[in-house]
Amino acid sequence: MTDWTKVGQRLADIAPMLGTVIGGPAGTAVGSIIAATLGTANNPEAVLASIKNNPDAALKLKELENAEHASLRAQALAMAQNEVHLAGLEMADQQQARSTHKDHWMPSLLTVTLAIMVSAMSYGVITTEVPKGSTEVAFLIVGQILTAFLTAVAFWLGSSRSSQVANKVIREKML
Prior knowledge:
The protein has nine helices and no strands. It is elongated. It starts with a helix and ends with a helix.
């Protein structure tokens, strides 16, 4: 089953603001407006089929985007501001954790232990063969340890996610 995000990806070239907004929290509501505009059933599959098979669909969607430009822009900006807010909360949580545990030995020990585990796993993956029946379990374990190590590194060095969100907000405001 297709979801509205797939429709948003398809709309990115035709009507970029519609594509952005349909991928957000108002996606279902915007999807129903698009379906009504195209005269299709209110589901992502029908909308995608209409976009693909109806040569007038792109024109109708562009007209809809132009008619609703201010509203769509406000929705896109609200989505971006929400992402910035969430990134700020995440960053504040990390900063609080860093300041709370700055003098404790445990975060340092965990980071060093994970670094040793990642090094040992890397060596093991290069030098030994994983038994055929255990490959999925090995991949799962390696993935979990790598994820934990990356989280530990982000704890100490911070995250560039907030920069990515800020750049997105700036691009959205330029629309």
